[in-house]
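Amino Acid Chain and Its Fold in Token Form
===========================================
Structure side: the spatial fold of the chain, written down as a series of whole-number tokens.
Position: the record begins directly beneath this header, with no further notes in between.
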Amino acid sequence: MTVLDCTVSNCAYNRDRSCRKDNIQVEGSEAHVTSDTCCGSFELKGCGCSNADCGCPSKETDVFCKAEECVFNHSMKCGADHISISGGKADTSAETECASFDCR
């Protein structure tokens, strides 16, 4: 599992920079820079996501990754020990990014 630090404060799954989901999906199949990636698991707070508050926040989560050119991508799974998802007060997943993306 990967240690996840999430600064997307508007995400329904974020609590104290930890994620309530068991896994997340990083999008960006054609990414060559960090801004080409995003957290596909992002859900805006208040969107009616009733399950968002059910999980216990955890710093460790499975990260599935579509950013094929990232050095940490191993068969569509993140192999980094630690990653950061950033996006501050994002309103959509497109306003988030995997700040740890590193192009091959």
Notes: Residues 2-46+57-98 form one domain.
